[in-house]
Amino acid sequence: MLADTRSYQDKSQAAVLKQLNTTTDGLTSNEAKKRLAQYGPNAIPEQKRNNLLDFLKRYWGPMPWLLELAIVLTLILGHDTESIIIFVLLTINAVIGFVQSNNSQKAVALLKKKLEIMATVRRDQAWQALAASQVVPGDIVQLKIGAIVPADLAIIAGNVTVDQSALTGESLPATASAGDLLYSGSIVKSGEVQAVVLNTGTSTYFGQTVTLVKTAKPKSKQEELMLAIVRYMLYLGIAASVIVAIYGLYLHESPVFILSFVLIFLIGSVPVALPAVLTIVQAVGAMALSKKGIIVSRLTSLEDAASIDIFCFDKTGTITQNKLSIIACQPLTGYTAEQLLDAAGLAADQEHPDAIDQAVLNYAAEIKHPLDFSKRQQFTPFDFATKRTEAVITTSDHRQMRVIKGAVPTILALYAKHHPADTAPASAAIQQLATANAKKGYRSLAVASVVDSQMALVGVLAIADPPRADSASMLARLKNLGIKPMMITGDSVPIARDVAEQVGIGTKILPAKALKTGTAADKIQLIHESDGFANVFPHDKYQIVKLLQEDGHLVGMTGDGVNDAPALKQAELGTAVSSASDVAKASASIILTHPGLHDIIAAITTSRQTYQRMLTWVINKITKVIEIIILFTLGFFWLKVSLVSLLGMSLLVFANDFATMSIATDNVQSTAGPNQWRLGPLTAASGVLGLWFALVDLMIVWLGLNQFHLSLPVLQTAVLIGLVFNSQFRLLIVRERSHFWTSWPSRTLLAVNLFTIIIFALLALTGWLMPAISSPLLVTILLLTLAATIVLDFLKVAVFRWLKIA
């Protein structure tokens, strides 16, 4: 078992080589073969999936069981048409789930592809080009400019500058030399090294991120909602079925009659169309977001995002520009900012600038300060030995001047050599500026000049990765929506704290190591009391999201790099910014295609609109179930018959469940704060509505028997039409939490609503699929249900306010 990569950090080169049982000459081919068998290839294991088996599993679970039971019962009773209808619905739900599951494998596939690179490896005392998958612990590898680090390494010779922002979140390039560690997936920007392989595959820093992405999965609030609704409705259906069955046995009714009644309750209670309705409502929201340049890769996130109350933000490339910029020009006394910028600019590589040179050149262009490179006679690019850049320029009085820029310690050490006896007040001034910059999280670049062998310190350039222009305003709007923003970054605490303060997140930024001790409760309290964490690794980001979720929060997360992928996958709304890596985009549930973060607000408001539409459907459905249970139970005790036939019940499912899919297009408003599903109050409110509509239905039964003198088959048609009219009128009032006239429904919803009423009216009048009823009776039912619905609207408003349903 190999040690964790970070445990090698403070060990000597000899100790590292001894622990890995290797030498600077590398391994032999035979030894490498043994280690490859022992540790496995430097790749991500791929689990083969049986697509057929995975699809068939969609027919197994609480919701499928109920529908399959209904199919069995209908076949027993000889109702083949109804069984076919239910099977089609079950299959539609299975197909939707299967497609969504396949999409979730994209992140792991892209991560696996990242390791498909070549490496220069020393085997049998000779350098060879091998596939990175063949690299093993103990191998000696060579890296040059542009190389992707193939595994976790410890440098044994040489110096490099590496870009590891996608892995650690650090915005500044990192310099590494003998004894330092390099992580798999980093990119060599300059220099050349030889290094020993410490860990490969899933044991690397990168590989552990892959493992987290594979295991990360938010607990689906959509699944919880569906199961809870089914459970609530099933409890009511079972209770009513037991009561009716006992009374039926007391009356010596036939088992077939009782079984038919139970089946009617089952079909009426199970929300058959719920999975399809959820998908359609979410798809409509996703289409609306796509028109704004937001790609939704996981539909269920649109439902969950409505309840998000904490949003975690990566810093580099998300809140900030992921581009080094000059924050301040700080000349010493006797020099101007223009002179400082001239010296720094002419000491920059104009043709092949590194990140720091580019920042200097960009700053000069932004403030429209021209750099006259015709003055430059000679240029010496950055060298790891000297750790500085230099240029020889001609001054206005035709003298030769050497301008130098580099890190503060490098320039001060050089200055001390030129002025060994000097008390160096200029050095103290430079050091003071650098210290002040460091407290703000800025990196300082010192600039000096040499004329006639006399060296002078010119000043300091403060460098940082500044926030995006829209970050502060977006975060302020997020707070107004009732969501707490937090920063989670791999960068240092000072840098994170400065950026967090600039954009309005706060200043209480803690190091990730603060979460290494204490109980889960202690860690959660620490998270709540902070504004964010710095120096985090991918596992830390993932852990913070998980801890918040375990504490009952729904979490949003943004990021752009590999280090963000596990947390993006785990969060209810993982958001990849426009500049994100492929891995981050594949792990996220939504992808922003425009620069900046303002589109997050659109995603939140759209998700809350999606929630409002689903809330309307759920209230309507629960109300209908309670209405049916009360009506059929009391009707059986009253008349000893079923008030609706089995075929009529199947038709009612389409009238209520599927016709109401038009809710997906309804005009709704986003709420001011996060939404929460509270099925207890929802059921209570729906119970009041359901009882009222059941009384209206019983009034139709009374009128049919005493005023229109209907036979049982015709009475069943009258009751069915009453249930259909109730469901359509009810939809128009429960879609609005205030009075129904407060907002106007969408054209599609009104059209489908009217179409359903007309179709069932024509069916009832013509006697197709059901016994015909007279025109006077149809008009009576229409007016009675319409009037009762308008009256109920006032009761609905009072109940919704009392139970705080919004």
Task: Give the structure's gist in a few sentences.
The chain has 806 residues and is of the alpha/beta class. 52% of the residues lie in helices and 15% in strands. The longest helix has 41 residues, at 599-639.
- What percent of residues are in strands? 15-25%
Low-pLDDT segments, ≥5 res: none
Structural class: alpha/beta
Counting DSSP H or I runs of 4 or more residues, the number of helices is 29
Alpha-carbon Rg, integer:
35 Å
Percentage of residues in helical conformation? 40-55%
Report the biggest beta sheet as strand number plus sense, adding barrel if it closes. 8 strands, mixed
Widest β-sheet, arrangement of strands: 8-21-20-19-9-16-18-17
Number of strands: 21
Could you tell me the mean pLDDT?
A: 83
Distance between the termini: 56 Å
- Mass-distribution shape: elongated
Structure, explained:
It is built from 29 helices and 21 strands. By secondary structure, the protein is of the alpha/beta class. Helix 20 (520-529) links the parallel strand 17 and strand 18. Helix 25 (646-658) packs parallel to helix 27, helix 26 (679-706) packs antiparallel against helix 29 and helix 27 (712-734) packs parallel to helix 29. The mean pLDDT is 83.
